[in-house]
Structure formats: structure tokens, C-alpha cells
């Protein structure tokens, strides 16, 4: 069979469609036609000896509404491990045939007893459609394995054909997304298991198709509905496996798309779904953002994906209420802090532009209820300080502009909070005073290279001084510095304040969003990580630690 596009032309000839020739089976009379039709025992022989004809059989059974026969064939194929057979299936354009059938009108017809069959498509039920989706995924993965293909070598014609039709495939399934979420009532009995399998299938298939399209030089944009499906499946999938769905989702959102803006995407992907979907999204992201066991390597992708959803349309999330230390926006800040205090300086340097851009995107809405928690509880100013000094040091005007915007958000929140004269206001002053003088000194001590760099340095100094004036901070007055070793706790270890004692750490001015480690030399200081402990020892704690241990 050449290309799936020919299958559509064959639709008008269904009445004349003959079964494929085969050496296995028995003569059967079907609708007045006598032909050799394989039985249950014959399929293993056909799959082994005539694999190139399997796509033709699937197409034939589907067109003739022979549901029992096609189910038998599907079951036999899913258990087929032989590589040679799958290479032959590829030559027969099996993925193309399956995609063509999945995208047909009438597929995913309701088959729940309480809902009547769609009279015109009685055999295209949900479970049958899902089985075709599962077989499509199985065919892609096994053909890739059988052909020894890599992400940079998807050259099979059948892969190119299905990749070009990815938008049609994703749109078809998105229009039936109600079958992705686990049903409240499993009716028919296999519905819950089928929807779970379908989620896993899509989480595998879509990243594969995106890789194939990338290899072909075809961008995958928001309007393809691939990101819609990835998000929906990922939110409701509880399996521990990492399918690469989130990096793929974030990759799609980064592609420019003149047909669908970020706001339109969020409106379609979230606003058009049931009311509880936004809450489910926030809960899933929040749980990962606050999870200190979540790999640092994935945090950049996680917060970027989160901002791609929250940033374009913050009103969908602005009214959501969370318990303390479980919020979505505060979770982004917590993840940034955790990343910055447990990663090397070089890694943090590349992470800062991502973090600042994300924070600006999600904090621009003044109505977000979590904003008021950030200055005191989360020590946002420490992140701003790091970003501002990095922007000036590296002569990075783009990073400076973004950081300036984030500092403006911080200033707005600070101004509103200080007027209340609360404990949070006191924490804001303390956190800002801790870093303000040292940050200003670093900005002034930077040696600019060229006129543009000098202008950037002056702007940054002016901006930082302006922020300090809001808090009553003045250069050279009541100077606090982060240099020198940590100040040990004077008392029992169990009464220590829960913060990182390494002064420059972003978690030094607040309760960290993770567990702490105690210095087992003196039992008087706490650290976020080995990095903080090693840095504090280098700053002088080593000399203090041993005398304290002898007391």
C-alpha cells in the first residue's frame, strides 16, 4: 500500500473491496461473497509469513465492520516482538492506515448503555477507537526499535506521512478528550483501564511525532493541539514513568505560532474544559514545585511549562486558594530558591534568566492572591539581587530589563505590605536590608567594558537605590553584610531557627522550602546543601566549628 492518502479514495469503493490474498484461513461466506478469511489460529502465521498484508487486513475488516475479526488481529499484533515483521508492517504503511482510521468521522462513538449508539456508526465505539490508538502507538515504537532509528534519523516514508497529519490526529482526539480523563463510572467495565492506557499511549506518541517533525524540519506549534493533549494527559496520569511529556510541552510552547497566541491557547486548552481542570493543573504543578525530591535538572522545564500556562491568562488561576507552602505561584519561587541553593554557580548563572522571566510572567497580575506572601515568606528579593548583579556583570541588558520589571513587582508588593505594619512587613525590611548593601557594592565594583556597559551599570545602581529608599535604606548607614562565616546558634540544636546559616544563600533570610542539614562538627548551624556548607567553611566556619565542638 503506498500512502494513506489513497485510503480516502478507496472509501467510495468499499462495496467492491475484496479481502487480501492469503495462504492461511478457510473459505467463508460473508455478505454473499465467498473468500478465504483467517481464523484465530491463522493470525500468528499471517503476521510471521505475510506481515506486509496485515495493514490491508485491518483496513478491510474496518471497512466491512468486522469488529470481532479486527479485535482478534489487534490482540495478535500487540504481542508480536519480531523485528522483521514490524519492518514489513512499516513497508505496508501500518501507522498511516491506523491514523487514517482513527481520524475517520464517527470514531469514538458513545457506547455507554445510557447513551444510544450513533445509528450511522454503530461499530466505531470508544473502546474500539482506543484500541486503534494503542495499536498506533505500539506500531510507532516497535517500528522504531525494529529499524534501529534514532531521534535524528526518522526517514521511513510511513513516519513522514503520519507526522504531516499530526494536527489532524491530535485535533480528532482533543475533540474527544472526555475519554482521556478517568470516568466516574466504568461503563462499559473496561472503560477506566482503557482511558488510562490511552493517556500513557498519547504521552508516548506525541513526543515521538514531534521528534519526527523536528527531524523533517517541520515546527510543531500550539495550533496543532499537541500541547493541548500533552497537558491533559499529563495532568491526569498518575504513573511514575517519565515520558518526556513536559519537556515536549514546553518545547511546543516556545515555537512561534501566528495562528494561535499564548492567551488563545490557554483559553482553548483550559478555559474550554470542565471547571475543575484549572484547579487540577494548579494542584499537579504545585505538588511538583514544592517537592524537594524533584530533580534539579527538571526544574527549569517545570517552571517554564508552568509559566506558559499561568502567564498568558493569570485570571484563570488568580482566585485559587492554597494552604500555606502549597501554592502555585509561591511554589515557583520555592523551586527557584531550591535550585539556586543546591546548584553550582555556573548552573545558577544559566538558570537565572529563565527564573526571572517566569516570575515576571506569573506575577504581573495584581489580583493573584499569593503575591502578598512572597516578599517576607519567600525572600523574593534575594533572587532579584542575584539576577541584577548577574545582568550587570555579564552586560546582559535583556536580563536587566526583566529583572527591573520583577523588582517593580517586588516594590509594589512591599509598598502595600509596609502600610499594614505587620510581621510580614518586618520580614520584608529584614530580608531586603540583609542583601541591599552588598548588592549595591557589587554593582558599583563591576568594571564596565564600553559605553553601553557603563550605562547599564548606572541604570542598575539607580534602580537598586530607588528600591532601598522605599524601605528607608541608605548607602553607608546601618550597613549589613553577607561576608564572613555564619553566626552559630547559641543554644540547643533543636531550638535553632529553620533557615540556612550560610549568609549569601537565598534561603538564609526565610524558612527554606526543603529540609535542612545540620553541621555535625558543632551542631550549631543549619545548611541547605553540601554546597552551602562547603562555602561557609571556606568563608571561615571551619575555624569556629572545632572550638564550638569542644564546649
Automatic annotation (TrEMBL):
Per the UniProt record, one Pfam family is zf-MYND
**UniProt KW keywords:** Metal-binding, Zinc, Zinc-finger
Among InterPro entries, the record links this protein to: Znf_MYND (IPR002893)
Report if keyword Cell cycle is assigned. no
Q: Where is the MYND-type domain?
A: 507-545
Q: Which domain of life is it from?
A: Eukaryota
Listed GO MF terms: zinc ion binding
Per the record's keyword annotation, is Acetylation included, yes or no?
Answer: no
Identify this protein by name: MYND-type domain-containing protein
